[in-house]
Amino acid sequence: IDDILVLLGLSIFIALATSTNAISFAQIATIVLQMIGYFIISVAIGIQLIPRITNWIDKLPIYQGIYLFTLVITLIYAWTAEVIGGVAAITGAFLVGLFLGKTKQHERIIQGMSTIAYGMFVPIFFANIGLQSNARDISGNLIWITAAIIIVAILSKLIGCSLGARMGGMNTQDSLQVGAGMISRGEVGLIVASLGLSHKIINQEIFSITVVTVIVVTLVTPLIMYRLSKETTTKDSVTT
Length: 240
Description:
single chain, 240 residues, mainly alpha, 2 domains
């Protein structure tokens, strides 16, 4: 849910940043109402029509038709989200995933689309991120700022999620493992940063800092989880 809230907030900032008129409360209200209207219409269509169309296409004698439909409806929702709804395209794609997840064919769709995504779209996405970023932008005081951001990113997730798990009834060790598992920040953060850069909401230095932060916390997460799981195994062995 936090990713969706970030995307909605980003969509508002993008709309305001690209506006040629003076920012006013009425303009912000119009943008929010536009987003709400898009969500109401898209959710209504998604709940009522997408499962029915999916079942209908699945019965047709079309080779891999359900995967083609998934790809097409995802692109349509992504396009309408940005053009009509005024929100980030990823929001529309996310909604399609929610709707298709309720269909009888969702497991087949996951398997088929994972092959397409990881074989084509994901490598292109990360290649594009790499082309836009430059580690040389991080120099001087920016190195210390980047280090501070990385530390805050790790501790905020580790402490915050661990406390939540502890309040939920887990023991301390399991809570720490939950917190460690939540440290990693991935594609959504990169998408937000890329959108911010393309709309000139952030500069090249901030974008590069974001990319480096995502890389570092992604690499650190399994190391921390391994350390915590090793401690858990050791304690269990001693107890036994």
